Amino acid sequence: MKQGTAARTRHFDLIVIGAGPAGAAAARTAAVSGLQVALVDKRRFPRPKLCGGGITGRAMGHYRRIFGDALPDIPLVTCDRFSFFGFGQDLGLTTGVAPLYLGMRHALDATLVAQALDAGAADFTGQGGALDTGDNCLTLNGLRLIAPLIIAADGVNSPTARQLFGQAFDRDRIGFALEVEHPETDTTAPVRIDFGAADWGYGWRFPKASGTTVGIGGVMARNADMKSALAAYQQRLNLPGDLPVKGQFLPFGAFRSVPGKGRILLAGDAAGLVDPITGEGIGHALLSGELAARAAITALSRAAPDQALAHYCHALKPTHQGLRHACLLRNIMFRERLRPAFIRSFRSSRTLRTEYFRLMAGETEYGPLMRHMAGRLPGFALKVLRGI
Question: Which of 142, 235, 325, 327 has the CA that lies 20 to 30 A from 360?
Fold first, then answer.
């Protein structure tokens, strides 16, 4: 690390803003490669975070590759039993499939940050700052951090995205989620997913070691009274409705086709990388953080930091394609006239369910899943699927 000529200036190869899964993955990947990395977050860890805390097999595969451990060292419930409901109808129980790992985000994030710091990233957590996008300079309480490249993984409300694009997200497309932590737990209970618990969204009940997480999420523009929907969902589950409720925006597949500008790359929720069907964000966060860091590594090795964003966009193409397919499938699932066909297909087709779980495990993508589903849907849906 070189000391700047001005007092209280430090130079790095890469600054990572935001230390959630995307930021921690980016910082660790870059630090392991030998880059001098500053990891910045306005909060200290552990810190509370609204999230269902479901880690899919796909996400766990990314974790193992990036962080080198079989599982994060946090309390996890491993569940391979799933109870599905669709628009109030029981779609059946599925068992013995690829598991979902269930844990608390405050524990997961703290562990990922510690692993990034252990890899050599410099710790600037607990410090908010002002970003100068022109000079790639971040000022923290009088200390100036300067780097040729910045990865911003600062969440769905990303201040960096607002600075670059004028807004962090499109309010007409953004999702919103509400969540409650119930103290009662039953780690033998199945994961429950209710399609349609919110309009163009779903509800979830996740059993964990410390309690049960219950929530709903859907497209915000279609849900004028999400609190009432959550209350109705808890009532359906015979759970009390008097516990504190947390809320957060959810970028349901409303990703940025170019996730950044100049020498600043956006990753995770800041880039809109959340699956619009499953609501999964952790897996995409880990992968995008890694890909952004590898793009930075490649560009800096060629002394061409201006090329990092192009490298990153290229690496993200498969992820963006999967999210486009998922948005098309959501368009079919939640259209009222197609709802009966979706319910029949999901209830009766074991193959369709198997493909769904293979998707969550990272063994297949949305394209093959949708082609399998196409033969079970009416002509209108086939028009939607045309070109897949």
Answer: 235
Mean pLDDT along residues 142-167: 96
What is the token pair recorded at 365? 């993508």
- Assign residue 144 the CATH number of its domain: 3.50.50.60
Closest CA to 289 of 1, 7, 25: 25
Q: Is the Cβ–Cβ distance between 353 and 345 less than 8 Å?
A: no
pTM over 0.90: yes
Residues 46 and 119 in one domain: yes
Report the CATH number at residue 188.
3.30.9.10
Helix (H) or strand (E) holding 117: helix 105-118
35 and 155 belong to one structural domain: yes
CB 52 within 8 A of CB 283: no
**In 3D, which of 170, 173, 169 has the Cα closest to residue 156?**
169
- The answer to whether position 331 is within a domain reads no
User: Is residue 96 exposed (0-12), middle (13-18) or buried (19+ Cβ within 10 Å)?
Assistant: exposed
Query: Which pLDDT score, from 0 to 100, does residue 350 have?
Result: 77
Q: Please tell me whether residues 282 and 141 are part of one structural domain.
A: yes
175 and 224 fall within a common domain: yes
Q: Are 91 and 186 part of one and the same domain?
A: yes
Listed in sequence order, the residues at least 6 apart from 106 whose beta carbon sits closer than 8 Å to its beta carbon are 45, 46, 47, 48, 49
Look over the chain and give the mean of its residue pLDDT values, rounded to a whole number: 90
